[in-house]
Amino acid sequence: MTPSPDRPLAVVVLAAGQGTRMRSSRPKVLHEIAGLPMLAHVLVAARALQPARLAVVVRHERDAVAAAVLEHAPEALVVDQDEVPGTGRALEVAVAALDGFAGDVLVLSGDVPLVDDRVLGPLLDAHRAGGVTTTMVTAVVADPTGYGRVIRGDGGDVERIVEHKDATDEERAVAEINAGLYVFSSTGLASRLAALGSSNAQGERYLTDVVAAARAAGERVGALTAPDLDVVAGVNDRAQLAAAARRMNDAIVRRHQLAGVTILDPLTTWIDATVTIGEDAEIRPNTQLQRATAIERGAIVGPDTTLVDTEVGEGARVNRTDATLAVIGAGADVGPWAYLRPGTRLGPEGKIGTFVETKNAVIGAGSKVPHLSYIGDTEVGERSNIGANTITANYDGVHKHRTTVGSAVRTGSHNVFVAPVTIGDGVYTGAGTVVRKDVPAGALAVNVAPQRNIEGWVEAHRPGTDAAETAARSQGVPEEDPAK
Ligand code: UD1
Ligand code: MG
Question: Which ligand 1 atom sits nearest the alpha carbon of residue 206?
């Protein structure tokens, strides 16, 4: 939506409340859905309107909330609410801080996080159509518990809003709720807010009472009815937090599906708002894609995979994997059951296989760590193969050290690389080698003691066991007849 040149727009976000019903030491508006604090989602919606002014009202855990405002909307004005409680007071201090602003004032709540242009555009249009000083958003919902109820007169016009705690049983039966989203014309708003009382169940100055005040002044109140809670759901407790997260996830999944991503099971796929996914990628069930994760086209991710701040290259395969701050190259193959910790960079066509943990590990193009290994603080060149069950011993109890492996290396199974150590290009190592010294290019490193076979040991020391009897049979020794 483009700003209307003749009606400047200010957006005020209310975020000063304590959020008692969350029962949390974290301020309510900083609880996250889809990887961002609720307040950040609201600020994204506010900024999309390109308002002339943006103000956020804070009080509870003021510094933490103000820091989030600065992070997500650096241009916003942070307004401190005093100890006088209520949404009406919150808007009053914001209007005072906007200092003579003339135009439309859009009010959003930090705890109504799903708002976007689908409701805000029509709300502003309805208000700008004229004839009103106050326009609000309502919704008819199956369970209106906790919300303010919209009371309409005989002619169908909105008369007043009654808060759940103040409502009679008859009023509580009303299914139309106040979404907590409004547009006010700035003219006369400050004096109307200043006149709000606090004789109600919560002893607060309710912003909602502005509606009855407008009616008392002989005005009509504009009301836009949203079809459901999909964009106007409020979050006051953890159950509503989960419900809002579900709704937002549904919308995010759908957005990716329409952009050409196959998402097999939307119910068990959770994608943060910040994630990008290319066309023809496929996301399999029970997968979480978080923060700055970016998946290129044609990659297959999941099932049972969690990626945080991880890049997956074109056509890569990531199966039953947990990865954080990792980069997976194009056409690479990861998992099943791989654990990629920060600083893992797997080159194109590389492999990190089953029960492998990596950390600060750069594994070059076409190189493979297929089975049962820990590779940390390591650089591996290209086309190398690290044998099964290999450990980089990177920690001496005090310091971490690096392991460097060249290109076209073949290491045997069950090796330990005791860092710092360098293994040259084209090296082979024997099975079971503990590599403590650098290995020059082209060498074979072995340090395992020669094997001794002690003939007859089992018969001598474990007589009568299954092993002894089976060995005897395979050597053609006649069995004793127990009947003799
Ligand atoms: C509010 C509405 C209710 C509506 C619901 C929609 C009022 C009185 N009630 O109720 O009609 O159905 O939202 O979700 O407005 N806040 C402040 N300062 C305060 C108190 C609150 O900034 O002193 C902020 C909160 O941080 C929150 C928002 O205002 O972001 C709404 O406050 P909340 O206490 O959640 O109001 P509800 O009971 O949900
Ligand atoms: Mg609320």
Answer: 8
Among protein residues, the one with the nearest Cα to ligand 1's atom 31 is 109
Burial class (CB in 10 A: 0-12, 13-18, 19+), 453: exposed
- State in Å: Cα 241 to ligand 1 middle: 15
The answer to whether the peptide bond before residue 420 is cis (omega within 30 degrees of 0) is: yes
Mark out the alpha helices in 217-358 (DSSP H runs): 238-258
217 and 246 part of one domain = no
Query: DSSP secondary structure string, 384-422?
Result: -BPPSS-EEE-B-SS-B--EEE-SS-BPPSS-EEESSEE
Same structural domain, 331 and 380: yes
Inside any domain, residue 39 = yes
- Mark whether 371 is an active-site residue: yes
Single-letter residue type at 300:
I
Ligand 1 atom showing the smallest separation from residue 111 Cα: 30
**Catalytic-labelled residue, pool 256, 371, 399, 461:** 371
Number of domains in the chain: 2
Look at residue 472 and tell me if it is in a domain: no
Best of 24, 87, 91 for a ligand 1 pocket test (most atoms within 8 Å of beta carbon): 87
pLDDT at residue 286 greater than cutoff 90: yes
pTM above 0.70, yes or no: yes
With a Cβ cut-off of 6 Å, ligand 1 is lined by 14-17, 29, 57, 81, 85-87, 89-90, 109-112, 147-148, 161, 163, 177-180, 206-208, 234, 236
Structural domain for 196, as ranges: 9-232
Which residue shows structure tokens 């945080």?
Answer: 308
Domain check: are 242 and 376 in the same one?
A: yes
119-172 residue pLDDT tens: 999 999 999 998 899 999 999 999 999 999 999 999 999 999 999 999 999 999
Residue 249, helix vs strand vs coil: helix
